[in-house]
Amino acid sequence: MSLLQAARQVRENAYAPYSRFKVGAAVRGKSGKIYQGCNVENVAYPEGTCAEAGAIAALIAAGETEITEICVVADSASPVPPCGGCRQKLAEFARHDVPITLATTEGERLDTTVGALLPGRFDISHMDRA
Ligand code: THU
């Protein structure tokens, strides 16, 4: 299964009764394995989690820590970029040059990188004097 297919497939399971906006994400670990995640909303709105966070949790739970490729799919007019928080979460486990494909369910694609989505990111070097 391709990363895009994996993201499309898991999107079907998204729990999004409040926004009605289902999102699917798939990340590839260094091992080559694919990990999937979907958004999981909550009646207490801020408690909801994004698709990207779910995919990262699955990768970590499987014992991996390095992402080599990312795909996010939503039913939107144009490819949906990850929210700011998810950019930082992805950057924790993906190098700047890791490719990320943002896609619509209709097949429109935007190919970019983790670094391009989060220039000037906060990283461990900023804590050198701590
Ligand atoms: N959402 C994601 O899961 N990932 C994104 O990249 C953008 C937004 C979810 C959060 C919420 O459940 C719904 O989309 C609307 O914001």
- Hey, roughly how much beta strand do the residues contain? 15-25%
Q: How many helical stretches?
A: 4
Stretches with pLDDT under 50, minimum 5 residues: none
Portion of residues within helices = 25-40%
Bound molecules: tetrahydrodeoxyuridine
Radius of gyration: 14 Å
CATH topology: Cytidine Deaminase, domain 2
- How far is the N terminus from the C terminus? 44 Å
The gist of it:
The protein has helices at about 5-10, 50-60, 85-95, 115, and strands at about 25-30, 35-40, 65-75, 100-105, 110-115.
Describe this structure in words.
With 130 residues, this protein is an alpha+beta fold. It has a single domain, classed as Cytidine Deaminase, domain 2. The chain is built from four helices and five strands; from the N terminus they run αββαβαββα. The protein has helices at 3-11, 51-61, 84-93, 114-117; strands at residues 23-29, 34-38, 67-74, 99-104, 109-113. α3 links the parallel β3 and β4. The radius of gyration is 14 Å and the shape is globular. Residues 16, 19, 21, 23, 39, 41, 48, 50-52, 72, 80, 82-83, 86 line the site of tetrahydrodeoxyuridine.
Task: Provide the fold topology.
Blueprint: H1 3-11, E1 23-29, E2 34-38, H2 51-61, E3 67-74, H3 84-93, E4 99-104, E5 109-113, H4 114-117
Parallel strand pairs: 3-4
Antiparallel strand pairs: 1-2, 1-3, 4-5
The protein binds tetrahydrodeoxyuridine (THU).
